[in-house]
Amino acid sequence: MAAATKRLLLAAAVALTLAAAGVSARRRPVRLLLYMHDIVGGPGQTSARLVRGPGPENPSMHPGNFFGDTVAVDDLLTSGPALGSEPLGRAQGTYMTGSMTDPVFVVSVTLMIKAGPYNGSTLVVAGRDDTSEPVRELAVVGGTGRLRRAAGHVLWSTAKVESPLHAVLELDVRASVPVPREARPVARASVSSE
């Protein structure tokens, strides 16, 4: 009986491995390296506080940051960390102070790509940004255009702080998208009024 159970488990493991290989073989990897410029004030401001959180003030962040603060962003995405680098798109969405004690933001942004092979496509990114960690992992939860049905993650890190008002984030996107199916003829039904 034990030998039969072992064979059954081995067969199930092989079947699952083959099924997983088939799924991944039908997906194409996507790698992007983008730099997001979050400018919270002054000339070139790209983000604005929508809601002052009810508190308390978060002791692990700069003074004036309260639990529940919500910020809208329309941040420039570039090919390098310098603000003058080639523009690649925009990061549009929100982030909120998500902890009363830790330097954590809850992020929900759409990366709108305006250059290169993914021009006109978007990636949707969501997750927890614990700024005390050098590298954070956020989820790629979808996309549009050539990035439709994207899945994966973004390695999200602070590349540099230009000033107290301008942070540059490095977004190392590691995702995949389904390989498009060959165009198939579609049977059309007709409705007759006879």
Keyword list:
194 residues; mainly beta; AOC barrel-like; globular; apoplast; Dirigent protein; signal
Low-confidence stretches: 14-23
Strand content: over 45%
Number of strands: 9
How does the major sheet shape up?
Answer: 8 strands, antiparallel, barrel
Going across the biggest sheet, name each strand in turn. Answer: 1-3-4-5-6-7-8-9
Note the run of SSEs as H and E. Answer: HEEEEEEEEE
Write the layout of secondary structure elements.
Blueprint: H1 2-25, E1 27-39, E2 47-51, E3 70-78, E4 87-97, E5 104-113, E6 122-130, E7 135-144, E8 151-163, E9 166-178
Antiparallel strand pairs: 1-3, 1-9, 2-3, 3-4, 4-5, 5-6, 6-7, 7-8, 8-9
Protein name: Dirigent protein
Keywords: Apoplast, Secreted, Signal
Family: Belongs to the plant dirigent protein family.
Short description:
Homodimer. By secondary structure, the protein is mainly β.
Please characterize this protein's 3D structure.
With 194 residues, the chain is mostly beta strands. It has a single domain (28-178), classed as Allene oxide cyclase-like (AOC barrel-like), CATH 2.40.480. The protein is 12% helix and 48% strand. It has one helix and nine strands; from the N terminus they run αβββββββββ. The chain has one helix spanning 2-25, and strands at residues 27-39, 47-51, 70-78, 87-97, 104-113, 122-130, 135-144, 151-163, 166-178. Strands 1-3-4-5-6-7-8-9 form an eight-stranded antiparallel beta barrel. β6 (122-130) and β7 (135-144) form a beta hairpin. The longest helix is centred in the N-terminal third of the chain and has 24 residues, at 2-25. The protein is globular and about 60 Å long. The chain starts with a helix and ends in a 16-residue tail after the last strand. The model is unreliable at 14-23 (pLDDT under 50).
